[in-house]
């Protein structure tokens, strides 16, 4: 589940619009997504930490709230 950092909408990754091809940053796969509810654009980072072996994920806002 992915949660929009602007409006709090939470849904499966497939519900969000992918704005560009995913890319790698360290051990993360990064996706630039657009929220279907509010139109907010953000980067969604997800990966497996090499230190702990646990899933790590977070979001970074890309623009001011529309």
Question: What is the average per-residue confidence, as pLDDT, rounded to a whole number?
Answer: 93
Order of helices and strands: EEEEEEE
Number of DSSP-assigned strands: 7
Instruction: Specify the biggest β-sheet.
Output: 5 strands, antiparallel
Q: What fraction of the residues are assigned to beta strands by DSSP?
A: over 45%
- Taken together, the total number of domains comes to 1
Radius of gyration: 12 Å
pLDDT under 50 segments (min length 5)?
Answer: none
By DSSP (H or I, 4+ residues per run), the number of helices equals 0
**Proportion of helical residues:** under 10%
- Note the gap between the termini: 22 Å
- Quaternary state reads single chain
SSE-based structural type: mainly beta
What is the approximate shape?
globular
3D architecture notes:
- With 66 residues, this protein is mostly beta strands.
- The chain has one domain (2-61).
- The chain has no helices and seven strands.
- It has strands at residues 2-3, 10-11, 17-18, 23-25, 28-34, 41-48, 55-61.
- Strands 3, 4, 5, 6 and 7 form a five-stranded antiparallel sheet that branches.
- β5 (28-34) and β6 (41-48) form a beta hairpin.
- It is globular, with a radius of gyration of 12 Å.
- The two termini are 22 Å apart.
- 14% of the residues are buried.
- The mean pLDDT is 93.
Provide a short characterization of the protein structure.
0% of the residues lie in helices and 47% in strands. The chain is mostly beta strands. Strand 5 and strand 6 form a beta hairpin.
